[in-house]
Amino acid sequence: MPDTALIGHNGGPPLDPDPPEDPGAASWRSWCWRRAHKRAWKTPPREIALRRLARAEELGMTYREYTLEILERGVHL
């Protein structure tokens, strides 16, 4: 059984440096992941950034840690 067919595999880029069987598919997947990462960490409007910063300081977190929690959980703390 190929290791990409395992249950729970999200199709992300491989963690090992071995080259894939199809280099075209790997480059497309990498491009999609880079694009999604860039869109997720895009700077929000000023009001939202200030609100997140204030909430992060209340919780004793950095802005980046708070934003990461929002991205991981999908809910605001």
Structural write-up:
- This protein is mainly alpha-helical.
- It contains three helices and no strands.
- Helix 2 crosses helix 3.
- The longest helix is centred in the middle third of the chain and has 18 residues.
- It is elongated and about 50 Å long.
- The N and C termini lie far apart (41 Å).
Helix content: 55-70%
Count of runs of 4 or more consecutive helical residues = 3
Q: What separation lies between the terminal Cα atoms?
A: 41 Å
Shape: elongated
> What structural category characterises the helix and strand content?
mainly alpha
Average predicted confidence as pLDDT: 78
Low-pLDDT runs: none
Main pleated sheet? none
β-strand percent reads under 5%
Rg over CA atoms: 17 Å
Element order: H for helix, E for strand = HHH
Instruction: Count all strands and give the number.
Output: 0
